[in-house]
Amino acid sequence: MSNKSAQATSLLPQNIAALAAYSSAKSEKLTGTTWLNANESPYAKNLELSIEDLNRYPDPQPQLVIDRYAAYTELESENVLMTRGADEGIELLVRTYCEPAKDSIALFLPTYGMYKVTADTHNVAINGLTQALLLDGSVDEIVKAVGSSKLVFICNPNNPTGSLTPLNKVKAIATALAGKALVIVDEAYIEFCPEQSATALINEFNNVVVLRTLSKAFALAGLRTGFTLAQESVLAPIRKVIAPYPVSGVVASIAAQAIAPDAITSMRRQVTILNSLKAKLVDWLNASPAALKILTGEGNFVTLKLANKNSFKVALEQGLVMRAFTLYGEDDWLRISIGSEQELEQVKIWLDGLKTPTAAAPLAGNEVS
Prior knowledge:
Its EC number is 2.6.1.9. The structure is a single chain. The chain has a seven-stranded mixed β-sheet with strand order 2-8-7-6-5-3-4, sandwiched between helices. A five-stranded mixed β-sheet has the order 1-11-12-10-9. It is built from 13 helices and twelve strands. About 45% of the residues are buried. The chain is about 35% helix and about 20% strand. It is an alpha/beta fold and about 375 residues long. Helix 4 (about 85-95) crosses helix 5 (about 115-120), helix 7 packs across helix 8 (about 165-175) and helix 11 runs parallel beside helix 13.
């Protein structure tokens, strides 16, 4: 290490110096022709775009987008904060409500990796609990395990397991933690099971926050647009912390079109198709010796335990890119995003070509995204 590099490194806080970079699906630099590794929608959008006013700063919270998303979620506009993806919502909540080197956040593992990375970045401790506790434990057991954690993250449906915490249990947890912690329900995949949304709890509970995104069912992963939904008393401090111009005018224009009433109708049709294709994929996996265990759950993905870890390499050789990662301490898990019918046919070809399971080299473990 050069002297200049050493000097720069010496300036880093200890929590940043020790931080492991988050590994997203796209950061793996894999090559292929069929991409089913990032839970993206297969549907491309045709949108109109005007760039005539880029010499002006944008509206920090574009009113048309806010109003349309409030109508979509059956909330008031004051309950909606637009962010740069749901990831910024996570970061803002930790930065606003947690004191570094003092507070903690509670997670139910395995779950989305950015909760931990964000907390580590801000020197906020992790209270690592389990999905089994969340799903099978009593509310009293969960609250006791949460302890003094300021934020409780419930990814619902959960990535990567697809498991769903019943709405009445989320409500009971929020009731028990009133005045003690914010219960943050990450609903990145809720459009695939909309009847389970916790948005209806927001008017009743001032400690319930819902995170949303346009990256999944709305087919706008490249736009990086999310929403934080909560009572205004919860959002008011966050509005002090958020960047002065978090949403570009171009993003606002596209987002407004994407959540117009006719576009929402189109999104729901696409969700119906994707859920049907997922059911077909699950049938294929159940009939295949390549899958030892299948976590179906909700969302636009299926997670499975491979019988032969070398099967992932075979897929890559065929140009089929899926998400390999370590789960429950085992490095032979694979998550398959639900793509188009043609893309899933490539999965079928891959499955049909696999032989009887044999020992193979381990997969590289990755965080979940």
